Amino acid sequence: MRRRSLLIVIALVLVATSCRRANRPASAVAIARPTQYELRLGKEVYQSYCIGCHGDSGAGDGFNAFNLDPHPRDLSDPVFQKGKSNAELADAIRRGGAGVGLTSLMPPWGHTLDDRHIDAVVVYIRSMKR
């Protein structure tokens, strides 16, 4: 009986601890350092789908940027980088600008890219900090 009570207490503590961790904001959770593979994959996807508007360095100066009003966002801007979570960046890539309340000029890539590729692009965008 005593052993059973102890197991129940341990189980309750574990559940309470995991719930508390799950409710922490994303900024409080430690982010693992990306692997070289993730960076390389993100760069390849970025170069295929994003570079035309956002440019080589993410500054929003791609070859098609001059055609767009508003111009593409500077992804390397430190203020922008600090102001957006990885989930927000992934959501914008997945649903496009209009899907997150911004310009409809950024297309949604969620039907083209799977979650792994979108996450890799986010990792690569994070490496663009000035």
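The above is record 1. Record 2 follows with the same two-line structure.
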Amino acid sequence: MSDDQTVAGDDRPPRHTVEVTVYEFVGGAAFFAALVERFYAGVMADPVLAPMYPTDDLEGARNRLCAFLVQFWGGPDTYSQQRGHPRLRMRHAPFAIGLDERERWMGHMRASVQAADTNAEVKAMLLGYFENSATAMRNQADR
């Protein structure tokens, strides 16, 4: 049965489903820009993480993360056009990322996602992705 058909005796109007990307659902790039701003506010106040970020290119780091997230969640592919394949593990290899760094990073990202103006399902999707990605970036044994 297609969405346009009804069951005999059912006088409800037919239901139609429209699929949208997370990017479209949250309203586009502005959502991710705000997410990244909240995240970086926490990171830059963190005594362990702040030194890992380039103070001379902090705006560039913000822009790259935002562009990556926009693309990953269904928006324009600007990130790949500018930087090629994300290669996240390679790009994070120069930084010592152990369990503490991972947990601190996730704490700031979790707070940023929880403060976002979207529904619980989208927040769960974002957090699931970030949890997996943060774990994948670890390159140091537990200390």
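The helical segments are 22-25, 29-44, 58-72, 78-83, 88-92, 99-114, 120-136.
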